[in-house]
Write a structure and sequence with these properties.
Layout (H helix, E strand, L loop, with lengths): L4 E5 L4 H12 L3 E6 L14 E4 L5 H11 L3 E4 L6 H6 L1 H22 L4 E5 L14 H20 L2 E7 L1 E3 L7 H15 L5 E3 L5 E2 L1 E3 H14 L5 E4 L5 E2 H9 L8 E3 L22 H4 L9 H15 L1
Parallel strand pairs: 1-2, 1-4, 2-3, 4-5, 5-6, 6-11, 7-10, 8-13
Antiparallel strand pairs: 9-12
Helix pairs in contact: 1-7, 2-4, 4-5, 6-8, 6-10
């Protein structure tokens, strides 16, 4: 019996690297779609079929779908830095919106029965309201397009909206940035404090390993056209992250609490999740996170201690 084939976009990224490892270990034939041939931390190059492809090239991605004919696609590629999106919004439109259109068009033309999971964002906004930042705008467009292609062309598209993903590996998230600076201080006595504008701001941090279990369930059992928020339902402030790290290191955590009225503070783009997320739909599929928050932070520290 042949293995089920999954195409993972953004395979060089934080989610993509973990996804390749997860699905490979679970018996899938993994096709890793990469924009460039950079080193990946999670697995060696000969364990998966790697294909270089720029998703903004419509013909290139169409040819990939035509040749590989995947059973599943995990669309994890894209840009996700809120601050960077203010500086280059057109790049974010190309990477998050046009790339998604090109991918779905390839599916429509050459493998219309492929089940596609599009990774959205909890930072999307209600389209009837004012946009929050360019990144949120592009992810909102991405979800609208995915829903539309599912309806108009009867494609098997599902949308996941994860909260803040954390874990070992290359990430530019708050927990990883702080862990990297802690390790620099531990190993090389380099003090580079991370500026924190809203220490009491709370976020729902989800371990990438738990998230990928949810992604696999959605690819297998998720309802077509449905949107699935994914999170823990628990919230931790940035101050709590700092305090948790202090328990895991003997050096002072390098942070600098900034003026909360700083002009950049209102552009950091992180949701407060005051009312939480409705996780009922993913939980009905018998998914619940299992990795404790402290274990996730410890794994991030361990990653940078080995890397540096």
């Amino acid at each position: 019996m042949s293995k089920e084939r999954i195409l993972i976009t953004g395979a060089n990224g934080f989610t993509g690297q973990h996804a390749c490892s997860h699905f490979l270990n679970n018996g899938y034939e993994v096709i890793a779609l990469k924009r460039n041939q950079q080193h990946t931390d999670q697995l060696s190059q000969d364990q998966v079929q790697s294909i270089l492809c720029d998703l903004t090239d419509e013909e290139a991605i169409a040819n990939v779908i035509k040749e590989t004919k995947p059973d599943y696609i995990l669309h994890a590629a894209g840009k996700n830095d809120v601050m960077e999106s203010w500086q280059n919004p057109s790049m974010y439109l190309k990477a998050n919106v046009m790339a998604t259109i090109h991918l779905l068009e390839g599916v429509r033309k050459y493998k219309s029965d492929t089940r596609v999971l599009v990774v959205g964002s909890a930072l999307e906004y209600n389209p009837t309201q004012r946009p929050n930042h360019p990144y949120g705008l592009t992810k909102t467009f991405q979800s609208l397009i995915s829903k539309s292609w599912q309806t108009l062309f009867n494609l098997s598209i599902i949308i996941a909206k994860p909260t803040n993903l954390i874990g070992a590996g290359p990430s530019r998230g708050f927990c990883s940035l702080l862990a990297e600076r802690i390790v620099k201080l531990e190993k090389y006595n380099i003090y580079e404090p991370l500026q924190v504008y809203h220490p009491n701001q709370v976020r729902d941090f989800l371990d990438i390993r738990d998230c990928l279990k949810a992604y696999e369930i959605l690819l297998k059992k998720g309802d077509i056209g449905e949107v699935y928020p994914i999170g823990t339902g628990n919230f931790h402030s940035l101050k709590e992250v700092i305090n948790q790290y202090q328990l895991l290191t003997s050096v002072p955590v390098p942070v600098e609490i900034m003026d909360q009225n700083h002009k950049l503070a209102n552009k950091n783009g992180h949701s407060v999740y005051e009312h939480g997320l409705d996780l009922s739909k993913i939980r009905k599929l018998n998914w619940n996170p299992s990795i404790p928050f402290s274990s996730s932070l410890n794994s991030i520290l361990s990653y940078y201690r080995q890397k540096l």
